[in-house]
Amino acid sequence: MSTTMLNDGILLIDKPVGKTSNQVIQIIKKKLGVNKIGHAGTLDPLATGLLVVLLNNGTKISDYLLTADKGYDVTMKLFIKTDSGDITGKIMEEIAPFKMKKKVIKKAFESFNGFIYEQYPPKYSAIKVNGKKLYEYARAEQEVQITPRTVTIQAIKFKNYNHATQTIQFSVLCSKGTYVRSLVEDIADKMGVLATVEKLTRVQSGNFKLADAVKVEDVDQKDIISMYDALFINKQPLLMYHYDEEIRQGKPIVIINHSDPNIFIIDKHKNVLAIYKHIGKHVYACQRGLWSNEQGPTPTSEGDKY
C-alpha cells in the first residue's frame, strides 16, 4: 500500500436508496473531517450501489475515473412511461398489461449487446443546455432541444421476466454518459411496449466493485484507498521518477519508451506527485500537481483546467 496521507484518496460507498449522491458525500465529509470531497459519477436518489467518493487531492483525479465503464443491475417496470424515466415520476402514458413472449424480450436485449448508438438523455437530468440544467427546464415546463449523445452498451444480459409483477431484470455494462433510464425506454420501444426504471443498482465502476464498498454509516479512515492504489486498480499509467524536486517545481521531464498521453508520476514511497502530459517526442509537461500541501506548492501550468 502507498504511504501517502490517508486523507487523500477514494472511498467505495454502497449508496442507500432515497439519498442524493451529494447528501451521501456531505455525511462522509463531516464524519471524516475532510476538506474537499467529490464523487466519480452521480447516482439518482432511487438508485443504490457503488458510489466512488473522492477525498481531498483525490478530487483532482476525478476525470481519470469518470471515464470508466459502469455496470448496473436493473429492474424495469413494464407498460408505463413516466416523465422522469423511473417510478418516482409522474405517469405520462400507460398501456394495458399483457403476457410477453420471452423470445421477443431476448431478441430486444440481444440487439443492444455491443451496440453503439445515439442516446437521448432524460429531460430530468443534469446535462446543461445554454447554461441551464435539463431538469430545470422540465420543472418549469419549458421546451428545450435535447441533443443525443453517443453511448456504448458493452454488454447486456437479460435475467428474468416476471409476468405477475410486470417486471424485467437485466444487467448491463455501459460507457460513461449512458443513462439507464433512457436505455430502459429504448429497450421497451424495441419490444413494442412502455417501461420505466423500478430499481437500479450500480455494481461496478471501472475496476471498482460494489462487493468492496462499505455502508455510509460504517465508513472509517481505514476504508480510504490511496491515490496510487486507486489508479493502479484502474490500470492508469504510473511511473516512478527519482528527481522529486523537478516534479514539485513543475519542470518538463524526458521519459523514454512511453507514449501514453498522460502519466502519473510517483515517488519511491508510491506517493502520487503529479499528472504529466505528453507534449512531443519524449517530453512530458506538468499537467497538475497532486502531492499534499505538506509536501510543497502545486505548480501552475497551462494544462491545469480542472
From TrEMBL:
Return the SUPFAM superfamilies for the record. Pseudouridine synthase
Q: Which residues form the Pseudouridine synthase II N-terminal domain?
A: 29-180
What's the catalysed reaction? uridine(55) in tRNA = pseudouridine(55) in tRNA
A Gene Ontology MF term for this entry?
A: RNA binding
Q: Which domain of life is it from?
A: Bacteria
What processes does the entry annotate via GO biological process terms?
mRNA pseudouridine synthesis; tRNA pseudouridine synthesis
UniProt entry tagged with the keyword Ribosomal protein: no
Instruction: List the CDD domains.
Output: PseudoU_synth_EcTruB
Q: Which residues form the active site?
A: D44 (nucleophile)
Q: What is this protein called?
A: tRNA pseudouridine synthase B
- Positions of the tRNA pseudouridylate synthase B C-terminal domain: 181-221
Q: Which UniProt keywords apply?
A: Isomerase, tRNA processing
Record-listed E.C. numbers: 5.4.99.25
Q: Function, please?
A: Responsible for synthesis of pseudouridine from uracil-55 in the psi GC loop of transfer RNAs.
Q: Which enzyme class, named as a word?
A: isomerase
Q: InterPro entries, from UniProt?
A: PsdUridine_synth_cat_dom_sf (IPR020103), PsdUridine_synth_N (IPR002501), tRNA_psdUridine_synth_TruB (IPR014780), TruB_C (IPR032819)
Q: Which family, according to UniProt?
A: Belongs to the pseudouridine synthase TruB family. Type 1 subfamily.
